[in-house]
């Protein structure tokens, strides 16, 4: 008979996982027929919609029902959170940060809060809230996984937990359900726990350096360096020399000043007393009161040693930059044996005097001579430029005179004549224009004594006219006016012959040609006078008579110069019209009978008059 009427179990566990188990025995122990098809083939047949020619197709069987405790079995959401609690009776901590893990079980929507155990914390830790459904409010709602997110606060049984992060499975699950997660936050740390992590004591291994051995080994051994401190960049600064001593016995440094005789400085022997010099200080030593306390090893990371003093390299001590340029023989031997440095040459630090700066003068302003204007740039109270006293004494009252004509397109200026006077003592030039009566031009002083600059010369370095520039036919440019030298006097000719070295061949040849022309015209006058010898006696007597009667005539001396100025060829004759014009300008009494007779005797032909004999009657 059948005795077992129960249903066979359809669930089983394999390796800790729930699996579906199909029963092989039915109610009453009857053996069920085993399906020969696989599960995949059964699913395909169940979902296959048959196509019928007539009628409605059969509906597909519904999907297999899976209960929640199977679908969400062992699927848990994990969140990292912390909460803060006050510590009222402790002097070491005022509040405490406790880090926890919040688990949400999707199987039955229950939650639990677990605090990881910290060794020797003295606080009961572990499971703070056991697994259960937690009420969200007083209405009776419970926390759901939709209420959880990163960066929010949740309150459970009066304690506020701050959720800061979650694991990867929780993030993927919530994002798959359409929940937008907040960015993760940094986990808060407990200050007292961090304090306990630091070591209680900091031990410093004692150094194996033996100061006594160093003292006995290097006693009375000193490294000597010669250095300079270049302080020329600051106001009233200069380049000073010092001697730096490094004592090998204790690593101390001193800086001694080098004084010279009559250097004007107080004779202090030391710039810096013997002491250990720190090279690198700690950060806390910046505000260290060095003026009242000595720096100890706790404030210094590195001290100056012998390897820091090298010839040819700068060194900064007490804010001063020293340059080491030499050392003594013992120091060289020590560096060769200790550090293997054998080439420590002496560096020449003597500064050469800079070349003198050429004084540049401002542009010439046009007032006075360039030399006079330049004196305002040399001194606050200008002085007169230096003169060549020897030249002034040797050439005193020596004047070179020349006859010149003015080159001008104006017709009235063609007959104007000028007398150039060159003063050898001062190299100055003056110009005088003889007045011509009724010419419309006021004669007299044309240019006062001054130096005349040559054209095309530089304004800053002018070149003045000298005696070598004046000769017959030379063109002289005086402040924009061009003059041509027509004649010279006898003193100029003798001066040129005695100083021929300073004249050009052109100037000397022009003078020779001028003299030869005058000598050629002289025999013609002598022959003419010989032919007219019978009338010469009458002419001489007439000249004497006129001189006695007109001895008080005012313009005696200028008549000859006026006639010579119009006689360009120096022939001794002028035309009749010019003769009477000159006589009229000098108020010569030509209406008197004696003067008329003299004009008749001096006439040669109808157009020419011998002004040479005529002028003799009006000269001393």
TrEMBL record:
Ranges in coiled-coil conformation: 508-556
Record-linked InterPro entries: DM10_dom (IPR006602), EF-hand-dom_pair (IPR011992), EF_hand_dom (IPR002048), EFHC1/EFHC2/EFHB (IPR040193)
Pfam family, one: DM10_dom
PROSITE patterns registered for this protein in UniProt: DM10, EF_HAND_2
Location of the EF-hand domain: 554-589
Gene Ontology biological process terms, A to Z: cerebral cortex cell migration; flagellated sperm motility; mitotic cytokinesis; mitotic spindle organization; regulation of cell division
GO cellular component: axonemal A tubule inner sheath; centrosome; mitotic spindle; sperm flagellum; spindle pole
Chief localization: cytoplasm
Keywords: Cell projection, Cilium, Coiled coil, Cytoplasm, Cytoskeleton, Flagellum, Repeat
Subunit structure: Microtubule inner protein component of sperm flagellar doublet microtubules. Interacts with the C-terminus of CACNA1E. Interacts with alpha-tubulin.
Name of the protein this chain belongs to: EF-hand domain-containing protein 1
Organism annotation: Sciurus vulgaris
Lineage of source species: Eukaryota, Metazoa, Chordata, Craniata, Vertebrata
